[in-house]
Amino acid sequence: MKNIYLKISSLFNKMFRTHIFFLLILFTYTLLAQDTVSITKLEYEKDRWCLNQIPFTGVAVRQMPDMTDYYTYCDGLACGYIALYPNKDTAAIHTYNGNNIHLVFFTKQGLKTLEYNQCILDETYLCGEWKDFRDDGSLQVKGNYLVISKTHEARGGSILKYMSVKDGIWEFYDETGKCIKTEHWKKGTLKKTFNN
């Protein structure tokens, strides 16, 4: 029985190492296949970021004295962003999922300062969870945004307008992490406030 276990274990280890090896090759190929260019070389054409009139896939870099921005594009569309401080610590990360963006910002000490979501419609709007942090990294405010649409009459017809509004429960915290106030919102209207 022990001999069978050793054979199975040995086979599993070989398969695992082979799998890891192929993943490393794929990752290296992906990195090498992407272009890295200055952001100034890209042009916005027909709803896509292009390099030499071809939708760009790769990383565009913008170097500034206090930060370096890395924009990732997939077939001309934004699919990721990371900003680094001069010491290479993360300043911001934006993750794209279709028309939704998750944004996180950090201090130079690596503490979160802000985390929220946006959705892209005719413009970019706040949507979903919002978290605001103090300088020490402790949570200060947590709530939710909802995108609503309103139609209003204007010269020439009706205009559909979107807006971000507070919705649901908003919580406010003191320096010790205790929730000191809770607000209940309904589509941009404050319904109740509780001081805890």
Report a brief summary of the structure.
This protein is of the alpha+beta class and about 200 residues long. Helices cover about 15% and strands about 60% of the residues.
Account of the 3D structure:
The chain is an alpha+beta fold and 196 residues long. It folds into two domains: 35-98, no CATH class; 99-196. The protein is 16% helix and 60% strand. It has one helix and 16 strands. The strands form two sheets. Strands 1, 5, 6, 7, 8, 9, 10, 11, 12, 13, 14, 15 and 16 form a 13-stranded mixed β-sheet that branches. Strands 2-3-4 form a three-stranded antiparallel β-sheet, with no helix packed on it. The chain is flat, with a radius of gyration of 24 Å. The model is unreliable at 4-33 (pLDDT under 50).
Topology of this protein?
Blueprint: H1 2-33, E1 35-38, E2 43-45, E3 48-51, E4 54-55, E5 58-64, E6 67-74, E7 77-84, E8 90-97, E9 100-106, E10 112-120, E11 124-133, E12 139-154, E13 157-166, E14 168-173, E15 179-186, E16 189-195
Parallel strand pairs: 1-5
Antiparallel strand pairs: 2-3, 3-4, 5-6, 6-7, 7-8, 8-9, 9-10, 10-11, 11-12, 12-13, 12-14, 14-15, 15-16
